[in-house]
Amino acid sequence: MKILVLNLMPNKIETENQISKVCENKNFEISFTFLRTESYKSKNTDFSYLKNHYKVFDEISSLNFDGFICTGAPVEKMDFDQVIYWDELTNIFKWVRKNLIPSYYICWGAQAALKIFYEIEKFTLNQKLSGIFNQVIMKKNRILKNLKKPISIPVSRFTGTKIEDVYKKRDLEIVLYSKKTGPCLISNKKYNEFYNFNHFEYSTETLNNEYKRDKKNNLKINIPENYFLNDNPSYKPINCWNENAMIFYNNWLNEIFFHNK
Question: Given 1.10.3720.10, 3.30.499.10, 3.40.50.300, 3.40.50.880, which CATH number is that of 2-124+159-202+240-260?
Answer without folding.
Answer: 3.40.50.880
